[in-house]
Amino acid sequence: MSAHEPASADTLGHRVQRLRSELEEEKVPLVRREVFPGAMHADWSRALDVLCEEIVYARYVSVHEGYRPSYGCFIVPDLSAIDTDSAIILTSLRESNTGGTITGDPAADADGAPSSSDATGKPADADLASDLRLLVDGEHTFLVRDLLGRTAFGTTDSPSDDLSLLNLCRGVAGVCVQRQRDGRVQMLMEGIVCINDGYDWRWLVTARELLPSVVESLDPPPDLTEELARHLGEALDLCVHVLSPRGIGATLVWRIGSQGPVGSVSNVPNSLPTELNLFSTRDRFAIVALLASVDGACFVERDGRIANYWAMLDPSSEAKLLVAEQGGTRHTSAKRYSYDEPRSIVIVVSADGPVTLFSDGAMLARLADTQQSQERTWLTRLPLAQGAQVSSNIESFECPKCAKQIAVEVDTHPDADASRIVRCPVCAVTELGTYENVLRLIVRVTKDWTPTPTG
Fold it and tell me: Does one domain contain both 46 and 186?
């Protein structure tokens, strides 16, 4: 077979079958119904089939002059439901009479029924997509497929960074498969981003998926909750889906309320030559360029205006004494500075990927791919009879060393065998208690939202 000819239906079918086995063996969450957009749950089997076809195509894009070009496809529930004002413009709509798919068995679909193919044995959708694929670069042009067997050509003026693609996925309730120029293949949807480099699978829960639990931990007053959730979501989107993929390390100090004790810096921070706002889409790439060019922390006002940059955080003597170290110098300084300024949230982006949030001298959350953290965030599911035995309890403590107010939320079940010792998340010294039969345990610092007196 020539390198420029599309693979046969048999070859594609076997590749998809191998992919499905690989996803299962590597425990990649793409095989789980719940990670797909809600609009796809009713036809999830078909959605998974189409997704696997597109991953296989992206992995094996035909070689031309020794190079496999970039590629991209959006999978959506229904092409006709995409609004004409959407950021992706559709043309060249083509419709299959059958909506057949390639599966692990080229002669049968996921439900065991014969798959639809033409007289040559190719899947019904193959001819619809093959010529359109020649126009797709996965950056500004995309193949767009729906679960009804229809195919279209899509164009967008948006940049093709992870955040823009995620926003497009949210807008069309879909999934994006993208082959990047370096050969990595990534799958993006509202709640998760998966990356395959040909050897390893990595996946990251998206910033917006984590956001509700972060806001809940902060426990803001009702009149601040909506604003906090909106702006924190925008800040995390930038950090997790733009800075982190580019390997740009950064520290952002966001002043979210009237200030408590003010931490100091060991230098005079620089002011900006022009006004930039962290929450403005227009300013996003200027801010990325700034953070890629300078060291130190960037101070952000409550409304998103960047006050200054190149600030060298200098935590107080009390913070240095009471707040335990966290990783390297950048993370430790950020954690201790958040102790000095309890009305701030400090976000640290590591050059190697993870994004960490600090508040009140403790780590609030950490977003890292599962390849690094080896942690699973899926909820425990128990049969109803067993679920009735789950006990939930919330306890409050004051740490005798650092005097921070600590809340411990714990779910226990008689059959769970996990035992957990809880220490203060700030000083990491004081033992607050031991819990048995633990299913879920959350330890957080109780943030004081009382306005600071003025005058």
Answer: yes
